[in-house]
Amino acid sequence: MAMPLRSWVFNEVWKHCCLMLWMAATTFVFCRTFLLYYYGPEYYYLHKMLGLGLCLSRASASAINLNCALILLPMCRTTLALLRGSRRVTSRGTRRLLDRNKSFHVACGIAIALFTGLHCAAHMVNAWNFSAHHSLQFPEINVVRYRNEDPRKILFTTVPGVTGILMVVILFLIGTSSTRQIRVTSYNVFWYTHSLYLVFFLLLLLHATGGVLKVQTNLLEHPPGCDTHGRPGNATSLPGVGIPEPLPEGFAEPEPGMAKKSGVECRELPRFQSQIPEAWLWVSGPLCLYCAERVYRFIRSSRAVTVTSAAQHPGNVLEIRMLRPGFTARPGQYVLLHCPSVSTFESHPFTLTECPPDSKGNFAIHLRVLGDWTASLRDQLITNQNPNMEYLRTSPTPPRQHPKLYIDGPFGSPAEEVFNYRVSLCVAGGIGVTPFAAVLNALLQQWGGVRLRRLYLVWVCKEARDFGWLAAVLTALHGKLWRENRPDFFSVRLFTTRSGALERLEEKYHALNSRMSVGRPCWRALFNEIAQCNQRTSVGVFCCGPQKMSRAVHRTCNRCSAHGTSFHYNKESFG
């Protein structure tokens, strides 16, 4: 197999196969339910009253139930982290699919929104048909009290109608606040609207309890369309009775030709009962799993960590070093950081830049101050700020002088796979280097049991000063490998995008200055160079940065074919 095809198959085929399987399952559930309500004998009389509106509303409801069950599974972060880190999941492709949990969550959300639109339209038609086709024959299946009653009463006075309207409002709020622009500029809006998911699922379980739709229960005694007038006149012949009995009130004669088609006499009148709700069958399992995990995570994160130090670096980068005894994590994982004094409910994901190699529990994160939440956190941590200084560090102080911080995690991410390749390429944009900072610190601490034999790092920032907070680690690792006579193990390329003369770091970082360039990388040339040095090898490519850069790296991974080298693309994205 040609190398571009090999790379493309690994990068694209498996995720598209998973997508097609999900679409096939949704389509199957939709079509199966549609045919059940179209041809099912227990829905015969209800279908004659409501028509295709009944079939479409129930089919879309089944699709909604399926996706409401699936949308919770990608958010079971602890379960996914356990699966990803367990030895049972040995396939690299399977672990890569687990890393796509956020994309699958978004796909399920889009499907729920689309089928909700179809469900609402079909039920509006049903409300009109209930009013226009009020049945005098079978009053049990009616919802309105008389013909041509205002159908809006069904929407605003019944349990399904009221709960449905509330669910549509909640879904609209969640969907509109999930756009990238809202998440970047007003993350708290995104966070609070998503917290309405519990109300949404509660309404979903209550939605079908109003008993609006009725099903026939005595199909053996009254086959749909059976002969209800065995003798001339307004009478019916019932088995075991030799004298014709008058036709009961409200039981009219069937449509012309129906008796001839069935050839079966009725034993009794049709009986109807409210349909049993089915939503709980779909969502109860995933909802219980998710709630149990949330309780476990709440208990696990209920103990505050000890802030040992905080520092502000150039480029608005804040470093926080913390201590929690017994805390363990793998390089590439991330945690959710919660500070009640900043926001009561908000938690934000940050990659660990330094992981404890043992159970001592010392770890660190670096974050860019961007927005109200991070700015408020910085102001509370850094008490001796001076805007004229480029680097500030607070000395360890009593815990009461620091705000209380809580962490939830760690959780898995694609960057964990860096050590599972013999050759890995890490591409970072700005603060996106944080997942790889943990990898570099792990190499300095001599973590064992890794397959990695060569590591490339490409880091793109606006200015040279933005490299400063990680320059010490890069220089230390470079010196360590030179002393061990392994200079080819680690290669770093630094790029500054701001036009003008090339800036330099401090003299003590001279090893990095020689690897710094102005402009953006030429990805094709860079990949060809890596392929030439690692012929007939599978290179793991890990990217964390702006979308434009990620798309360019992704395209290059699929197209590069030099020297028989395949590139496996992995995009860092918090789940």
Average pLDDT, all residues:
82
Uncertain runs are: 230-262, 384-400
Biggest sheet statistics: 7 strands, antiparallel
| Secondary structure tally, helices | 19
How is this structure best summarized?
The chain has 575 residues and is α/β, with parallel strands linked by helices. The chain contains 19 helices and 17 strands.
Structure commentary:
- The model is unreliable at 230-262 and 384-400 (pLDDT under 50).
- The chain is of the alpha/beta class and 575 residues long.
- α1 packs across α3, α3 runs parallel beside α13 and α8 packs antiparallel against α11 (197-207).
- β14, α17 and β15 form a beta-alpha-beta unit.
- It is built from 19 helices and 17 strands.
- 44% of the residues lie in helices and 16% in strands.
- The longest helix has 37 residues, at 3-39.
- The chain has three domains: 10-216 and 276-283, no CATH class; 301-384 and 391-411, Elongation Factor Tu (Ef-tu), domain 3, CATH 2.40.30.10; 414-571, 3-Layer(aba) Sandwich (Rossmann fold), CATH 3.40.50.
- The strands form four sheets. The chain has a seven-stranded antiparallel sheet. A six-stranded parallel sheet has the order 15-14-13-12-16-17, with helices on both faces.
- The chain is elongated.
- It has helices spanning 3-39, 44-50, 52-70, 77-85, 92-98, 101-132, 152-157, 159-176, 180-185, 187-194, 197-207, 258-262, 279-300, 372-381, 434-444, 468-483, 510-513, 523-533, 547-559, and strands at residues 214-216, 235-236, 245-246, 272-274, 306-313, 317-323, 334-338, 348-354, 362-368, 392-394, 406-411, 423-429, 454-461, 490-496, 516-518, 538-544, 566-571.
